[in-house]
Prior knowledge:
The complex is a heterodimer.
Chain A: H1 3-51, H2 55-61, H3 65-101, H4 109-122, H5 126-146, H6 158-183, H7 187-194, H8 199-228, H9 231-235, H10 241-252, H11 255-283, H12 291-298, H13 305-330, H14 335-342, H15 344-377, H16 384-395, H17 402-416, H18 419-422, H19 428-449, H20 453-460, H21 466-477, H22 479-495, H23 498-503, H24 511-519, H25 525-552
Chain B: H1 2-18, E1 28-33, H2 37-51, E2 54-59, H3 65-75, E3 84-87, H4 91-98, E4 102-103, E5 125-137, E6 160-163, H5 168-181, H6 183-195, E7 199-201, H7 204-212, E8 218-222, H8 223-231, E9 236-239, E10 252-260, H9 266-276, H10 279-288, H11 317-335
Parallel strand pairs in B: 1-2, 1-3, 6-7, 6-8
Antiparallel strand pairs in B: 3-10, 4-10, 5-8, 5-9, 5-10
Amino acid sequence: MTAPAAESRRAARRSRVTSAGSLVATAWAFYVAVTLAPVLAVAGRGLARLVAGDAEAWGLLLPSTRRLWLLVDSLAASLAVTAFTTIIGMLAAAAFLRRIAAGDGAAPRGASLLPAALILWAITPPYLHALVGMEAGNALAAALRAIGLTVAPAQWPGWLAAFAAQAFALLPISLAAASVGLLGVGRAEFEAGRMLAGRGRVFLRVVLPLAAPATAAGAAAVFVLALLDHATPSLFGRASHAMEIVAEHAATRLAWRAAILALPLILIAGLAIAAASIAVRRGGRALTGTVAMRIAEARPLGPSPVAESLAAAIVLGYAALFVGLAAAGLGLGTALPRLIWEVRRDLATTLVDAVLAGLLALGPAALIGWHLAAGEGRAAGRTVVGRGAAWVVVLLPLAVPPALIGVGIAEVLADHAPMALRTSPLVAIWAHLARFLPFAVLVVHAAVRRVDPALIDAARLHRPSAPARWRRIEGPLSMSGLVAAFALVFCGAVGELEATLLSAAPGAGLLSMRVFNYLHYGASDTVAALGLVLGAIVWVAAVTALRAIGRRRGGEP
Amino acid sequence: MRKMFWIAAVAAVLAALLVPRPGDEARVVTVYTSVDQVFSEPILKAFEEKTGIRVAALYDAEAAKTVGLVNRLIAEKNAPLADVFWNGEILRTLALKDEGVLDVHRPPAVGMLPPRLVDPDGHWTAIGGRARVLLVNTRLVPRDRRPTSILELPARAGEVAVANPLFGSTSTHAAALAATLGVDRAVGFFVALKAGGAQVVDGNAVVRDLVAAGRAPMGLTDTDDACEAIGRGDPVAAVFLDQGLGGLGTLVVPNSVALIRGAPHPQAARALIDFLTTPETEAALITAGWIQIPSRPTAATAPCYGTPTIDAMAVTMSAIREAGSLVGPRLTEVFQR
């Protein structure tokens, strides 16, 4: 090989590396611009006032008695939801996993159904659970009145209704996290203990500590989502600190005031996410093989069969209630097609926004997901600080109240966007991406981590160009993750409400906004039908994605 | 990959259809409205069908109600998106006039309306409204224990639910009380309610639900919310307070409609305002249950109330506006800080 030819080849390789690096940098820039820039823009104004010693700003940061009480109340409510979902999730997970493992065959059918059911449950928009609660409350009151109990309440107390709606909306997250935690505990690890101590004691001393990282991650997710959610409590007339952000912005139209009010929530949520991340990194156990294989092997140990059965009954009872009421919605007969026709424009906008949000998320999610995973695989290539900073950037948007994201986007658009953009129904896509792009990155990253590094290293021996490497190796290997990321962003966008409500353009009718507005008048056939349509969209999308992923993995989830 | 391509292609085509084209602009009108979507949307659709002009509506959020939209209009004053503001109450429309957000337009219906419902300068026009009523739970508050005057409520504050007086029609009510009783007495009324244990909640619909569920024996709300509870068979009754000779009267909160200064689509905006102020639109809103107190003779009857004859609070819009600007900041100190 001549020297000039070798030099030329080296230059071409350097150029390819540079272009791949540019692509990754662009993905990061896009990520920051979409998820963090609007929030940083408004938060920056608030912080500048704080730094300047503005008394009004400090007055907002140091809460009055009312606001302090509201913060404490919101924290207590979120912790109650977290405690309920974590306990019920752990008990029910133990019951379900053992039941499935006890079935016949090496790869029981339940092993595929359980994760699928949890995914369908988790992607159902939270206010549909509020609707189910309202319907159930109405039905219960009507039944009690029918048997002569005229003192039956017309509604549940607001705090109880909000708790139930949030708890049952978030329960699948805890259930899934507990399942992962339990599946990570080998049978040998607790069977030895069972020779010496009782079931409950072994569970507490052996199983629970080993399953704790995954369970803690689930608990942190539930806590953060409950704390930052203002829509569900407001449906039941319950004040929350997250709602205070919306009210402050509406009352003053000063985004910096909303940002300062949001700071305590961002700090608390950030700490929860950080703690969960550290717990998972230090003690998390990676699951190998398929879920079905793990379930068949694991037969996890729970603390008490009675408590586990009770928890499983609560989960199944609620699921049956939800499915039953959804099926009752189908009984609306001819009203359903008429309603769908009436909301066809909203339906089209919702679907287009969600598809575009999903597609726009794919590129950045793939590039950033691979970039993060590559950094972990070759630790020497990047500093600990650099990796930490990258993860902070990825996770920070998850700690921001959706209301503040909406306020930030609205402010940036009002200040900088041309009229055509401000009035476009497609503005909502930004809100959707801001909410769900971080989740898409995490999904792709998780999928990439499942890829055997030996496969990639072997392929790299051929030194393909960056595009070729992506097209032939990394793309196909991460296709399951990309499908999951697209489905997640799509489903999230279809149901997203809190950021969209504050940033959507006039006339940008979205189904989620319509359902939420109607829900303020209570449950009705109209809202039930619209809720069913919303639910059907996300369920069909999720099932399609699960089937696609299953086919790629040879039929196993 | 091929599937992805087709999904992207279909989404791109649909997105292109959704992006407004230059020719569409003249046939669009943007309205910000605090009238509940279930009531306002059918009216706006009727306008679309009649004129062919597409309506882009922005509805309010329950907790912030009118205030959120009004502050958005003020923030957008120099580059407005909205053409028309259709307000479920009047106080904030008066504030918008003072802020210079509104433009002059006198719809043809002006001649049919009482003078107090028409701005002498032409910046807004009001049509029939809702009345403020005391909703009582009939199981908890027997007929002989029901208050007849709003001034009796502070003494029974522990039984009362009220919406946050910084927002919505409750803020108009606070301003009207301040105009009638004086600012200090009006502020004292709300302070006494709060100090006495009244439940201060996010909106009138919440007040309605609390009373209907028996978690508050009674609460101040609007006739449309009260009608919702009456219609679904809840054990409630609506009491028109301060009736009879010498009484304060019941506050009637009219709807108000206004043209935005610098509206991007002024012609379509004027057409919409003309439509919203017609007797036919008012009749439709009465029949639907949004308006209970008509502003002019009509054959339409409101569900729950028929054609109520009430003694309305004798207070002018300018007095409400003036008192509202004084009472608002003081109530903010009490309820928001």
